[in-house]
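Dear all,

This email documents one entry for the complex benchmark we are building for the journal club exercise. For each entry we list the sequence lines for every component of the assembly. Then comes the predicted three-dimensional structure of the complex as a token string, followed by one or two observations. Please use this as the template for your own entries, and keep the labels exactly as they appear.
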Amino acid sequence: MALFFKKGKDSPRTTEAPDLALRLKAREERLALVEQICRTLLIFMKDFSLEIAEIDAAGFRDDIDAVTQRIVAEDAPRTAASEFAKRQRRIGDYIGRQKSYLHDREKELRDIIDLLSKAIASLNVENRLYNDSIYTQTERMESITRLDDIKKIKAVLKDEIDQMRTAVRAKQVQENRQAELLSQQVHSLQGELEKVKQETLLDGLTGVYNRRAFDIHLRECVERSTVMSFSFSLLLLDIDDFKQINDPHGHLTGDRVLVSLIHKCRQFIRGEDMAARYGGEEFAIVLPGASLRNAIKKARHIRKAVAATRYASQEGEDSPALSLTISIGVCTMHRGDSATALVERADRALYLAKHLGKNRVVSEKELR
Ligand code: GH3
Ligand code: MG
Ligand code: MG
């Protein structure tokens, strides 16, 4: 600018020219520096933004790029200023959004850690080792809540969750094994129980049902026949003159004969029939679905077969063979009968068979 001053008159002013030029140069350099700083800061800001769509990180970057371009383009200050003013509020908003986003995430993470710690602490497990591992894990969880860096929290939390998963899986495997073992034990106990139950219903000597089982079964048959059309008949068997076997040959022989007799009777008993030792040398046979006629027929077969059989008095093939006969009383279920009435009728028929000379079948029809 000093070049335009005239010599002489304007000469005092010319001394200011170099000074001004220096100041202008310094100003330009400062401006260039400010521009450089601004551009660098804008790059940092761009880098600082997280790539999160829900807070419009892309919009924020666009805004930063637009402002940077205005600086590079060296537009008229007014244009640059208006562009900056337009973007300034949006950039500020974005920074606010990112801050609260990070704050929210951090809070969520802390809540999750808290929830997990409580859930772990409340697990009701018996295994001591598992308890210990859970306990230490809970402590580690608590230490995570003291971390400030969200990235560190995430990394440590991921590691903890992996460890928890491994511990829970190991526990599951152990529990499955225990459950399997328990179910095996339950199964075998059920079998034992069933066996014991059966044994309480069986006669120790002959292996047929005992009196208790007979009473239960007869009651059930009577109940069934009262609610539906179900018929059945009853045989009451008694060995004739059993004392004649016991007295000369002894009780053991008597026992042996009892077992052989029931073995013989079983040949006439079907799956749904029930044979029971009623007491002493008396047996009862329940025949479901059998009419009186069929029951008499079956009784006659049994009596005949028993009488035709020879019974070993002792062990060994050459032991003296014994003969025996039985008397049988037969009756059938009638409407309104009770179990007691039924047994009484069969007993009366049996008594009559004895009275008439034994080794015979007498049915309720012959009772007066
Ligand atoms: P009846 O023809 O009138 O039936 O004569 P009985 O001798 O068979 O009749 P009684 O009722 O007088 O005798 C039955 C005998 O059966 C008496 C008893 O000692 C015997 N007895 C009962 N239970 C058993 C047993 O489990 N084993 C043996 N060996 N004998 C038994
Ligand atoms: Mg007898
Ligand atoms: Mg008797």
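Observations: Residues 1-8 have pLDDT under 50 and may be disordered. The domain at 211-366 is CATH 3.30.70.270 (Alpha-Beta Plaits).
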